[in-house]
Amino acid sequence: MEKFSKLSAISPLNEKSKSVLLIDQNKLPRKLTYMKCRNWEQVAVAIEHLSVRGAPAIGVAAAMGLALAALQAGDKHFDSTMQIAAARLRKTRPTAINLFWAIDRIMSIVEMDLSITEKRKKIIEEANYMRNEDIRVNKSIGENGKILFEDGDVVLTHCNTGGLATVKYGTALGVIRAAWNEGKHVEVIADETRPKLQGSRLTAFELQYDGIPVTVICDNMAGHFMAQGKIDKIIVGADRIVRTGHVFNKIGTYSVAVLAKYHGNIPFYVAAPTSTFDLEQSYDEVIIEDRDPREVYFMPGVTKRIVPKGVPVLNPAFDMTPPELITAIITERGIIYPPYEENIKKIMP
Amino acid sequence: MEKFSKLSAISPLNEKSKSVLLIDQNKLPRKLTYMKCRNWEQVAVAIEHLSVRGAPAIGVAAAMGLALAALQAGDKHFDSTMQIAAARLRKTRPTAINLFWAIDRIMSIVEMDLSITEKRKKIIEEANYMRNEDIRVNKSIGENGKILFEDGDVVLTHCNTGGLATVKYGTALGVIRAAWNEGKHVEVIADETRPKLQGSRLTAFELQYDGIPVTVICDNMAGHFMAQGKIDKIIVGADRIVRTGHVFNKIGTYSVAVLAKYHGNIPFYVAAPTSTFDLEQSYDEVIIEDRDPREVYFMPGVTKRIVPKGVPVLNPAFDMTPPELITAIITERGIIYPPYEENIKKIMP
Fold first, then answer.
1. Cβ–Cβ < 8 Å for B313, B305
2. Which residue stretches of chain B have pLDDT < 70?
């Protein structure tokens, strides 16, 4: 069987068919299938519905959405069409900074003093370049981070940070892949990650695909296994990292970090590309997305209600882990250790 | 609408129909329905499948199972039939001590120097007495514990410890009911409690039924809301409390206790009848039940797989919370504060 890391979650833009292929993550683990997006609206909906998710993947998908817009926009209303597409894509999800980073990067081309034909060409090139760059960046994160893991480590992870959360290879799972490929036998414990079960559905799927041992637990079991000494290290991804080193990531990350601290400082690593860093906003300015209550009312893909009708639920999609709970942040430019405010500055341009 | 606390999760033994009615908790929240158990085997299966669950309810159900055995056993093989029924019921679940406490209590009648007719009569009386006693005990726990809660408190709870986990009224939820009935407006946040969702399916159901405000969250969100200062107090039940004050309760309880400690010592209360105390075994001797992996592979009542085939899962049903994380233990005989080893001795006969 082909390695999962040979697949890619987001195809390059196909100029002939004017489309982009995305692995439909809502269909996993039951079905590995691609959805074809033919316009920016389809990409926007795919991001909103989590057909594509994971901060780096969202960024590249948005760039591809804008590339589709550039292909389709007529010469007459080119700039305004691009603005409309960008505005639509910006509204899909508020927390992952990669979305805004990618849109800004593409939209800077729209601002350039170029002909429409040149802009169109450059936007498509840039989107495809960003896609390839994401793969290169993930490989570098893996290479940089793998020294932190040893043969025999049992590593807890939360949510999905693998080939599905990126174009290919992954951030936190990329580090695990790199360690594994070097002959280190690591075992992964994957939190199932309610409500959308990215751990049980996606992380388990792609690690099993690659033959890396993975065991799924419910989110509320992590503390129990830490108390039993069964977890050596923890690695997660990030949706946004601010200049003080506060990390916004999938809901539940923070609890894992507190538990790690309590259990004798189990190393807690965050792996993310520098495109995930937000040097503008402070941690109290970041908006944490509240998602549809139906994600909690119903299990993914199932119509049987698990909460009585009329009972309210809360569904924040992310939480914030403060720097004092983080052992190191692994990026494509190297590993950042505390003090984060100082060392993030050094690594960021 | 009748208050939920007017319903009872376990009926008295009906000698005419030779049956006991149990609310089928696996059908909730979609359907409030009773299952009729006509023999001890049906009771045993109901306990194994969590149709009846919650330490106090399991104890009373087992007593009812033995009462059904006593009704059905012929005079010739009365004692041996009772032994077989007791052995079967003992094997249903290993962790909740109430099960063994209840079986021992009934079986001590079998050992008595009485005629078969007298034994049968006494066993049925005792089972019905234990059922009524459970209700009285829960009321006392509620009365004792309610002073710990104030008007306006937002109280986190885990799993279900209400009328469904007992015969009626509940332990931890009984305390909430008592506070509420005294006019204290408390709001409950219920952890959904994977894998079996006792929080979202059962706790939400019975609190909504009684008009007590309840909001459901996923288990991995509790830390986030503690960090936001949104949780004032925590109250949970127990399946077994050993002499040193170590509390065995639903998986996830321990993580909540650690998080409470980390967030400036949010009060963490345990409510349980003294029948939940085990003064014999030490905490490292208690067996934590590992349940069927299918509870994690599939959502309750749903056949769609949420973990890829072939990926292992872990499914411990309980964890252990050490005494240093517990603010107080509320029993029908009063509130126990640290040092637990000393104060448990004082309250237990």
1. no
2. 1-2, 5
Question: What is A4-139's CATH topology?
Answer: Four Helix Bundle (Hemerythrin (Met), subunit A) (1.20.120)
Distance of CA A178 to the CA centre of its chain: 18
Residue range B211-228, pLDDT digits in tens:
999 999 999 999 999 999
What ipTM did this prediction achieve? 0.95
Q: Is the dihedral of CA A40, A44, A50, A52 positive or negative?
A: positive
Q: Which helix (H) or strand (E) holds B311?
A: none
Q: Do domains B4-139 and B141-347 have the same CATH topology?
A: no
Listing DSSP states for A69-111 in one string gives HHHHS-STTHHHHHHHHHHHHHTS-SS-HHHHHHHHHHHHHHT
**Domain locations along chain B:** 4-139, 141-347
Asked whether the beta carbons of residue B311 and residue A204 sit closer than 8 angstroms, the reply is yes
Report which of A225, A247, A283 is spatially closest to residue A161, judged by C-alpha positions. A247
Token reading at B152: 């306006």
Residue A43 contacts residue A70 (beta carbons within 8 Å):
no
Distance from the B114 Cα atom to the nearest Cα atom in chain A, whole angstroms: 48
CATH 3.40.47.10 fits A141-347, yes or no: no
Element housing A337 (H / E): none
Distance from CA of B195 to the nearest CA of A (A): 7
Half-sphere exposure of B238 (CA within 13 A, CB side): 30
CB contact under 8 A, B194 and A218: yes
